Amino acid sequence: MPTVDILIVGAGISGIGAGIECLRRGHQSFLVLEAASDLGGTWRDNTYPGVAVDIPSVSYCFAFETDYAWSREFAPGAEIQQYVTHCADKYGVTAHIRYRSRVVRAQFDQATDTWATHLDDGTVVTSRYLIAATGLFTHPIRPAIAGLDTFAGRVMHTSAWDHDHDLTRARVAIIGTGASAVQIVPALAAQAAQLFVFQRTPIWISPRFDRPLHPEGRWSPRRFALVRKVLRATSEFSIACLTFSIANYRTFPFVVHALQRGLRAYMRRQVTDPATAAQLVPAYGLGCKRPTTSNDYLPAFNRDNVQLVTQPIARVCPEGIVTVDQRRFDVDTIVLATGFQTTEPGTGPAFEVVGREGVELGRFWAANRRQAYAGVSVPGFPNFFLTAGPYAGGFNWFAMLEANLAHIFACIDQARARGATRVEVTAGAHDHYMQEMWRRADGTVFKAGSCATAHSYYLDRHGDASLPLPHTPWWRVWHRRWHGTRGYRFQRLGQAA
User: Fold this and answer.
1) d(CA 54, CA 75)
2) Which of 54, 109, 422 is CA-nearest to residue 46?
3) How far apart are CA 197 and CA 172, in angstroms?
4) CA dist 441 to 244, 257, 260, 292, 334, Å?
5) CB 211: neighbour CB atoms within 10 A?
6) Of 2, 155, 233, 290, which residue is least crowded by CB atoms under 10 Å?
7) Residue 191: Cβ within 10 Å count
8) Kind and range of the H or E run holding 131
9) The overall pTM is greater than 0.90
10) Do 360 and 139 form a contact (C-beta atoms < 8 A)?
């Protein structure tokens, strides 16, 4: 018998959500393995100044747990971390978590229809089912800049912030202008003596309709479940509209173009210097890389102590950063807002997965393009599920996660009902699904020529935008309800395929 029936790797939002779903469906034999000493994943690790969610809190939460005392419309990172901990405690998942348990490899045993999951300390945990919930943002990118190791000051990645390092009146360089930089630049601009922002690719920014919330107030949404549902639906509808325009770019390019015109005008109005404003407005299409919201990022460049640098970096020297035009920027601290590896081998999941024919998942994807049925299942990997596999993504992680977990547990519950020990997506169902995904992807904004300059983490080594779903988020729900588990083969131990 395996150690547990269901093994979940990762105790971030996805792992906690999978654990809650286990208990809600009556699966008591499960274990959550977490490499760190606390749960939370991305929101545990990212604590840099200004960190916050970039979609409204009313929708960035589990649909069954919307009554929470958010302090703002867009919750700060610490509150998201507290929310995840709250959910783990309230629904009983905390008792099933084993910390300091880093998974390095998992292998399927065809003789027993079980997975053997190996930890870095030599421990092996066996399970009937294996769910990879390691998320996307677990491998920070340290840019290959010549001389970075020679810098005499302090170098910090945004995912490993040192709060004891005082930046008051310091000279600071930030490399990168993605979503993390958009949040951290205003925070550091208010305390640093000089802030240099090194930009390779600008980012699309829309206004953030943020406001303080009063959880115990008379008109707080916490008092009215219906109001929370309406606000959540409104938020999801706006996200779906943006997704629709991006996913159907070839058919309706004018929608994206209209949005771009409005955002360009908004962004230019935020910056007083026309030359700086022009450099901050993207030349690539809206949606090629994840856009974000902010009311403070662009105005930060109106400050005397903030300077935008668009010349490429040539090297780092002990005193600071040298650009290709041989200009040297002397700084005390370099902040790497350079994001994460998302589609490279060894990411998503963050460990080796060896299927029934000895095929390793990362190497299979590297050779054959990243692919997964419904974003959760791959042929040749029985009893194995991804919470956020290829073509599963969306702007709201919670909405994606809940749809994917419903799909995963429909398979597990069906296997239990049939007395099956193995459930695996058929090659036919998988291939048909992926042909549809690739066909749909050809009509998205990601295949537009302007995306070539976006440097988007959505794009993988094959040139595929293999993270986002090329449909609206509601399509996932329709697909699961329409197809159910018909694309899977269920077998008992020893039964011929």
Assistant:
1) 8
2) 54
3) 9
4) 12, 19, 21, 22, 38
5) 9
6) 233
7) 15
8) strand 124-132
9) yes
10) no
Beta strands per DSSP E along 133-273:
139-140, 154-157, 171-175, 194-198, 205-206
Between CA 206 and CA 259 the distance in angstroms is 10
Written as one letter, the residue type at 25 is: R
At position 438, the amino acid (one-letter code) is W
By C-alpha distance, which of 339, 334, 331, 308 is closest to 148?
334
Residue 373's closest CA among 462, 461, 437, 465? Answer: 437
Please count the CA atoms within 13 angstroms of the CA of 74 that sit on its side-chain side: 17
Query: Between vectors from CA 53 to CA 178 and to CA 389, what angle results, nearest 5°?
Result: 75
> What order of strands is seen across the sheet that includes strand 306-309?
154-157, 333-336, 171-175, 194-198, 306-309
d(CA 354, CA 372): 15
In degrees, rounded to 5, the angle at the alpha carbon of residue 191 between the alpha carbons of residues 189 and 192 is 70
Contact 51, 41 (CB under 8 A): no
pLDDT by residue for the chain (497 residues), tens only, comes to 899 999 999 999 999 999 999 999 999 999 999 999 999 999 999 999 999 999 999 999 999 999 999 999 999 999 999 999 999 999 999 999 999 999 999 999 999 999 999 999 999 999 999 999 999 888 999 999 999 999 999 999 999 999 999 999 999 999 999 999 999 999 999 999 999 999 999 999 999 999 888 777 666 777 778 888 888 899 899 988 889 999 999 898 999 999 999 999 999 999 999 999 999 999 999 999 999 999 999 999 999 999 999 999 999 999 999 999 999 999 999 999 999 999 988 888 999 999 999 999 999 999 999 999 999 999 999 999 999 999 998 889 999 999 999 999 999 999 999 999 999 999 999 999 999 999 999 999 998 877 878 889 898 999 899 999 999 988 988 998 899 999 999 999 877 66
Read off the tokens for 432: 């048909």
Q: Give the span between the Cα atoms of 101 and 117, in whole angstroms.
A: 11
Whether the Cβ atoms of residue 366 and residue 461 lie closer than 8 Å to each other: yes
- The CB density around residue 144, as the number of other CB atoms within 10 Å, is 6
Contact 84, 16 (CB under 8 A): yes
DSSP state of 250: T
138 Cβ neighbours under 8 A, 6+ residues apart? 41, 340, 347, 350
For residues 35 and 100, the answer to whether their CB atoms sit within 8 Å is yes
Report how far residue 306's alpha carbon sits from residue 231's, in angstroms, rounded to the nearest whole number.
37
Sign of torsion over alpha carbons 168, 172, 175, 177 = positive
Tokens at 258, concatenated = 């209209």
User: Helix, strand, coil shares of the chain as percentages rounded to 5?
Assistant: 35, 20, 45
- Strands 114-119 and 103-109, sheet pairing: antiparallel
Residue type at 252?
Answer: F
